[in-house]
Amino acid sequence: MGSLADDTIAGLLESPVKHKGNRAANRARARRIASRVPEVMVKITGNAKGADHVQSHLDYISRNGKLELEDERGDVIHGKDEVRALAKDWSQDQGKRRKNTRDTTNIIMSMPAGTEPRDVKDAVRAFAKRQFGQNHQYVMALHTDTDSPHVHLTVKSLGYDGRRLNVKKSDPQKWREAFAVELERRGVEAEATPRATRGVIKRGVSQVVHHIREKGQTPQVDQAKVREVLVDFRDQRAGQAPKPRHWEDRIKERQTYVRKAWLTAAKDMAQSRDPDDQELAKRIAAFVGSMPPMKTERHELQEEVARQLQRAQERQGREESKERDNQDER
Fold it and tell me: At the top level of its lineage, which domain of life is listed (predicted)?
């Protein structure tokens, strides 16, 4: 078989980390992705700023001392008093700081439902030791109160060397890949494929926004998006062209390329005499067919607002019809 499929797959799997595997490794990874092996999730949920905020966060992840915290030495912190003592200790050693200095970096690392929670915690422990253990204090807490077992990892920003943790844009993807490696070492199938490679357009929802929505409230960001959609509808009714959103065009272009590249690789492998290639070609074609629609959150909001407006118009039409019938009877 020619190298077209291999080159195409290599290009698709090249992440921001710029890690390239060999042909066999790339094919094995493509097979796992097409088979929808569980994807790891690593999300920076925020930062604690100031002593009160640090204490509040540690109270939250420990459920006010009911869940144990484990630090970088493997020591267990349990109970409200021990958690408060840890928060006080971290707050007394803040170094030089400005008003908005980030005293912690708060991370969630999780796997889909069905993963053994202990494996997730063990993998996070190994990851944290490799990534932060040389220079930073940290604590971790395993949560199993949702379908997806997850660990809250809180890293003290000020390092032993007096420098603060500087998280780069590419770091979360690097951490995802390192987390997946640690899971695989424990016999847990895991992948860390970038969203774009999986055909995913919508970004994840931040923890803050998620909590606000859970309370039945509308976050400011949602309100702003709805207002934007309503302005678009108003402009359309007035015969005005919608405002250009070049970033959406770039997303569509990227996703068109991703889908075409996967299908190109599948077509090339389907022509191979190797049964494994043919089987992988079928998996990839099915994988592309199951990719989510190329819609941003704004597009979904547009559709929802359109449905609400349509229902409102239909309701108004029924009320007007009923009123006319009543007038005719009189």
Answer: Bacteria
Residue 39, beta-bridge partner list: 191
3-class secondary structure for 294-330?
CCCHHHHHHHHHHHHHHHHHHHHHHHHHHHHHHHHHC
**Could you tell me the two tokens for 37?**
């092996």
Q: Which of 139, 164, 190 is the last residue of a domain?
A: 190
Q: Would you tell me how many other CB atoms lie within 10 Å of the CB of residue 139?
A: 25
Question: Which range marks the domain in which residue 83 is found?
Answer: 40-190
Per-residue pLDDT of 222-275, as tens digits, reads 677 667 767 776 777 777 777 777 777 888 888 888 899 999 999 999 999 999
According to DSSP, the residues that pair with 244 across neighbouring strands are none
Q: Where are the extended beta strands (E) located within the chain?
A: 41-48, 69-71, 76-77, 104-110, 138-143, 150-156
Starting at the earlier edge strand, list the strands of the sheet with 138-143: 41-48, 104-110, 150-156, 138-143, 69-71, 76-77
- Claim to verify: residue 304 and residue 162 sit in the same structural domain: no
Run of H or E residues at 60: helix 51-61
165 shares its domain with 296: no
CATH number at residue 90: 3.30.930.30
What single-letter amino acid sits at 308? Q
Same domain, 123 and 161: yes
Please check whether residue 281 is in contact with residue 209, taking contact to mean a CB–CB distance below 8 angstroms. no
Q: What is the mean pLDDT of residues 116-131?
A: 98
User: In angstroms, what CA-CA distances link 165 with 37, 73, 174, 203, 206?
Assistant: 32, 19, 15, 25, 21
